[in-house]
Amino acid sequence: MQALLDNLRQLIGAQHVLTDGDLSAYEHDWRKRSRGKSLAVVRPGNTAEVAAVVKACAVTGVSIVPQGGNTGLVVGSTPDDSGTQIVLSLQRMHAVRAVDAANLTMTVEAGCILQSLQETAANAGFLFPLSLGAEGSCTIGGNLSTNAGGTQVLRYGNARELCLGLEVVTAHGEIWSGLSGLRKDNTGYDLRNLFVGSEGTLGIITAATMKLYPQPAAQLTAWAAVPSLEDAVTLLGLAHQHLGAGLTGFEVMGQFALSLVAKHYPQQRVPLYQDTPWCVLLENSDNESETHARTQFESLLELALEQGCVTDAVVAENLAQAHALWHVRESISLAQAEEGLNIKHDISIPVSRIPEFVRSTDALLQANIPGVRLVNFGHLGDGNLHYNVQAPAEGDPAQFLRAQEERVNTLVFDAVIAHGGSISAEHGVGSLKVGHLEHYKSPVALEMMRGIKQALDPQNLMNPGRVVQVGNAGF
């Protein structure tokens, strides 16, 4: 191992091969669910250096854990506790390589912070629509590796739909340059989409060409109280009819989820939640004018009030009010963490079946685990719920997790599958869900996934133990 470390220091500089000091930022996962121990944290500065590191590790049989902002929620970007894995951090690779205005694309390196992409696009007069709570620290490489979603999937799609090209270092240390930015290229297998969502198990994304969009003339935000999830689904249908492609966000939040924000962040004003079981946050992006957008919004809400699927609503009067409403939504996860340990579920279900799923699964959990508290919120517009389970108010939350996590996961995942859903919508599989995949994924699909893994990473050195389970050697 010492010979490998000496080689890596020669390849990228001794100051970028970290073995001493506090490495917790690289070895702890974001939720503090797991802490590993790395052989070294290696920080290459360009794609050629990434390739050289991968080749050196392949020769010695040392596995690699690629890492961006380390903000993932499924323990997919931190090392195990063996002290034998290299953490390959892409944080030094954060350049914006090019903005092509005519092609509506931006080419960036994998370590570029998501918020930096948004700001670079805005400064060039464009919109980069990927938006999520960790955007100030997550990286585009990590977003692509998990096929991140966020709040505007309804209109613009997941990270996969926003990506036109990739640069990837393979498990053999070769560089695939696929950054053309073409919207049409029908010359064989879609390698780009294979690497997107693979969580670093097939190769290391080092750069990407992403889509840009014209800035909307106006963006308006509304907050509505709804009597039930069925009414939220009805409102979603009305919004599709009246706003069309202008509907860029549709978030649902349960009363208990919002009560946690009000409890732990009293400086925030949480509208309407005390008198309704559910609230909805809508965003309307208009290409005509703010007056047109507001007229559309008001007409939609008037109709919804008449039909009874909305009981009260407010429309943000300015950008500051809109930001405040979105800040409430983005604060739910933080407020839940303040409340104590919890069991998170990132699930997707056909929108039409979400009300029945929530009703039946809430009842199932409450019957099996008295006092359990349910934190329900998420992206109703695209069928993605964050269906989280909080420990009972009385008792030891850590003991609750130890005693109940597997039971809760089984009850929830069985219900998800029974309702035609998926146990991972936008957070990925990582190591937390890889064992569950064996039970909930088609055996045929798993066999094809293993075949792809074997073909592209025959030594099983790229982020082993994540996404798909394989043998340590020879599969």
TrEMBL record:
<dbReference type="InterPro" id="IPR016167">
    <property type="entry name" value="FAD-bd_PCMH_sub1"/>
</dbReference>
<dbReference type="InterPro" id="IPR016171">
    <property type="entry name" value="Vanillyl_alc_oxidase_C-sub2"/>
</dbReference>
<keyword id="KW-0285">Flavoprotein</keyword>
<comment type="similarity">
    <text>Belongs to the FAD-binding oxidoreductase/transferase type 4 family.</text>
</comment>
<dbReference type="InterPro" id="IPR036318">
    <property type="entry name" value="FAD-bd_PCMH-like_sf"/>
</dbReference>
<dbReference type="InterPro" id="IPR051264">
    <property type="entry name" value="FAD-oxidored/transferase_4"/>
</dbReference>
<keyword id="KW-0274">FAD</keyword>
<dbReference type="Pfam" id="PF01565">
    <property type="entry name" value="FAD_binding_4"/>
</dbReference>
<dbReference type="InterPro" id="IPR016164">
    <property type="entry name" value="FAD-linked_Oxase-like_C"/>
</dbReference>
<dbReference type="InterPro" id="IPR016169">
    <property type="entry name" value="FAD-bd_PCMH_sub2"/>
</dbReference>
<dbReference type="InterPro" id="IPR016166">
    <property type="entry name" value="FAD-bd_PCMH"/>
</dbReference>
<protein>
    <submittedName>
        <fullName>FAD/FMN-containing dehydrogenase</fullName>
    </submittedName>
</protein>
<dbReference type="InterPro" id="IPR004113">
    <property type="entry name" value="FAD-bd_oxidored_4_C"/>
</dbReference>
<dbReference type="Pfam" id="PF02913">
    <property type="entry name" value="FAD-oxidase_C"/>
</dbReference>
<feature type="domain" description="FAD-binding PCMH-type">
    <location>
        <begin position="34"/>
        <end position="215"/>
    </location>
</feature>
<dbReference type="InterPro" id="IPR006094">
    <property type="entry name" value="Oxid_FAD_bind_N"/>
</dbReference>
